[in-house]
Design a protein that fits this description.
Residues 37-140 form the PTS EIIA type-1 domain. By secondary structure, this protein is mainly β. Helix content is 2%, strand content 44%. It contains 1 helix and 15 strands. It has one helix at residues 38-41, and strands spanning 6-8, 19-22, 27-31, 48-53, 57-59, 64-70, 75-80, 85-91, 101-103, 110-111, 116-120, 130-135, 141-146, 150-151, 157-163. A hairpin with a 4-residue loop joins strand 7 and strand 8. The radius of gyration is 15 Å and the shape is globular. The two termini are 23 Å apart.
Amino acid sequence: MKYTDISYLPQRQLAANSIAICSPFSGKVAPLSEHPEPFFSYGTLGPGIMVALSNHKILAPFDGTLMQVKNAGTEFILQANNGLKVLLNLYLDQQQHIKHTHIAQLNGSKITKGQRLAYFDLRDLNSPLLASLILLNGHQLKPIHYSLSQVTAGVDTLLTLTKK
């Protein structure tokens, strides 16, 4: 069963008490249901959103802690100061390889909103690198909305959460 609790809502209609998560990625926003991996498209880990990257930087979406970097720097588990945990996942077709990667932070590092977590060289890729933000413990934060079809890392809001 697909997880469908994330929907589009124009910014002017968002509740005043909502929590905004700044985009860690730049690119075109798409529902997680369009992810090529069923594990993500079915929302197995939780609700989330996907971005086809147009920029090489991954930035911290909030102040908190970088809990873990996994899978050769393609997965980041972050915890916000308010307790929210998110997974940032990068997906690339298996026939392609990223030639240069720079991970800017280590496990257990304190992070601040907009701080660079990683850099990826996207120049030689034939298809876009897909990035996902998954809410690992956001089950009590509903409804969840996205308001933009194109986002800029560190500038735009990717998701808006509302406390129950």
